[in-house]
Amino acid sequence: MTTSIDSSSSSIAAVDSEAMEILAAEEARQHGTIELIASENHVSPAVREAVGSVFTNKYAEGYPGKRYYGGCDNMDAAENLARDRVKKLFGCDHANVQPHSGSQANFAVFLAHLSPGDTVLSLDLSHGGHLSHGMKVNVSGMLYNIVSYGVNPETEQFDYDEIHRLAKEHKPKLIISGASAYPRTINFDRFSEIAHEVGALHLADIAHIAGLVATNLHPSPVPTAEFVTTTTHKTLRGPRGGLIMCKEDFAKKVDSRIFPGIQGGPLMHAVLGKAIAFKEALQPSFATYQQQVLDNAKHLADALKSLGNRIVSGGTDNHLMLLDLRTNYPDVTGSDAEGWLEQAGIIVNKNMIPFDERKPIHTSGLRIGTPATTTRGMGSNEMDAIASMLDRVLRSGGEQSVIEGVATEVRTLCDQFPLP
Ligand SMILES: *Cc1c(COP(=O)(O)O)cnc(C)c1O
Fold first, then answer.
1. CB burial string 34-52: b at 16+ within 10 A, e below
2. Could you give the domains of the chain?
3. Which residue from 197, 230, 285, 395 puts its CA 20 to 30 A from 217's CA?
């Protein structure tokens, strides 16, 4: 397998052959596999250069113009650039670009608005929620009283009347919208309305769909939600990290909860990478990319359906879908499927489907997303090929000869679509 690292000029190769071997293996893996994990993507060479730059050497505790260390002029310039671009991209009042991750962004919002014991209404983990929205073993579940909403058993979509009812019954102080595995359009305006009616604030976590929101391909929560959090590394296609947007009234508090509340020095190499990614996201070509992500997801869902599969909620409005394995492959669990597909070079993650009867370590579903394959330039023909390969591997029940045949097809396909 080829790798883009030229070991003759690599500084890593010169000092550490073990690390070099691991890095080269990962480059080869990313080149040689079809990445369908909905939360992953491939960043541009410019973003990679930024996160591998001398910005990693600098402490910059504080915020632009108010740092606790000297020598921060360039850090200030980078952070201001990133903040200004976020404001332009999403139209928000205030942006904090320092969160190390999406989970940190959410925790800072909790600390800005809640006291321990306060009630939070959020999406059930097994219906597509995120661990930072109240999982028992996460700090969110340890500190706050979490009430969950799920999807409607018939439609497998949000039932806003039911969410309204739960909000009136439990009087939460915060309502969280946004998900890790929800394939449909989210009515953020309705979430804001419900929150405001019961005296709660609305946190919209757009970690998965930020790229779609930035390009107006999904309605934005920014006008009506007090807080909007996101990761920068999923559909937004930036470096690994988090971001908080909020109304001006909450700016000071949110900033102080990130630093010094829960973080020390910001990862300024990531902040520089975020600034670059936001510039990329402001280009017309990024909107074209996001539209192709949507087209590919729809095409892949339709192709899987035409092979007899059931897709949770009947389809997708965004970059991901949930395949219900029980229809075509009743004996195959999500963990079986994930393992066999990985052997064939197709990377997916097992996922609970709503009202799943299998345990979280097994599951009855796969979560499948198109951001990464679309970045490589794959389109509808490749989506048809991927649907066919998935179906053959799963139908075979992990038959080695079938897996090997598909693995050869995967390699041929990958060679035609280089990584950025
Ligand atoms: C991915 C994700 C996050 C944050 O993830 P990190 O791994 O902490 O960056 C937060 N919320 C949702 C809904 C997510 O999908």
1. bbbbbbbbbbbeebeebbe
2. 51-281 (3.40.640.10), 293-416 (3.90.1150.10)
3. 197
